[in-house]
Amino acid sequence: MLTAGSAAPDFILPGTDGEVVREYMLAEHTRDGPVVLAFYLFDFNEACTELLRALRDDDGVGGRDGVTVLGVSRDSAFSHRALAREHDLPFPLLSDSDGAVAERYGVRLDELAGHRDVCNRAVFVVDTATTVRYAWAADDPEGRPDLDEVRAALDDL
């Protein structure tokens, strides 16, 4: 897994803001400010949905001016659109359909509960120089990051 101080690999992935499906590039967002990159297992998985809602609701993370949150999983942009609409998620959800981005970030799981090649739940804070400033990955499928640590990483920027 990438660690703090590592260069964050750029990517272009299809995704949705809940309405339009289009391509998203990490570099287009880091030009505007830091990015909180949240990998998650599956759309509509209770623990994953809780993480995305927590990022949405936290004023020091998803509600902070100048910070972009991007969610990433292997599910399709069309499934993402349904999740974003149902839970009023104001940030893009991206589809890493072949797992290549999760692999580059070191958070691809070979197997989980009979599902092959899924994204582990992980959170990275990436600064405007595309350097990872915070990195966390779940040790178990129910794990959640400490949002105080995410806020602290953003405060340091």
Named CATH topology: Glutaredoxin
Task: Give the strand order, joined by hyphens, for the main sheet.
Answer: 2-1-5-4-3-8-9
- Kindly report how far apart the N and C termini lie: 22 Å
Structural class: alpha+beta
CATH architectural designation: 3-Layer(aba) Sandwich
Largest sheet: 7 strands, mixed
State the total count of DSSP E strands: 9
* Unreliable residue runs: none
Average of pLDDT:
94
Total tally of structural domains: 1
Helix content: 25-40%
Into which percentage range does the β-strand content fall?
A: 25-35%
Would you kindly provide a brief summary of this structure?
The protein is an alpha+beta fold.
Keywords:
157 residues; alpha+beta; Glutaredoxin; seven-stranded mixed sheet; two-stranded antiparallel sheet; 9 strands
Task: Provide an overview of this structure.
- By secondary structure, this protein is of the alpha+beta class.
- The chain has one domain (12-155): Glutaredoxin (3-Layer(aba) Sandwich), CATH 3.40.30.
- It is built from five helices and nine strands.
- The strands form two sheets. The protein has a seven-stranded mixed beta sheet. Strands 6-7 form a two-stranded antiparallel ribbon.
